[in-house]
What we know:
mainly alpha, 96% helix, transmembrane, PPI1-4, coiled coil
Amino acid sequence: MESKSSLENVVADKISGSSNKEVDAAKQKEMKREEEIAKAKQALERKKKQAEKAATKAAIRAQKEAEKKLKEIIYFFSCFASL
């Protein structure tokens, strides 16, 4: 009987060992998935910041262009006013 129970123990150990490997593989797969999600979120945040920065630059550029045109108009009318 002892040989049978030791054989059962060996089989049980092998089964639990393989299931541990499967669990470890599943954990690694889940961790990798979570890392990829985190990286994607970081990339999205970077893109969002870049878009905000580009929008700010465009607004500043438009403001400067508007001020330049206003100065040209003021200069144009000041030239005619002095006549």
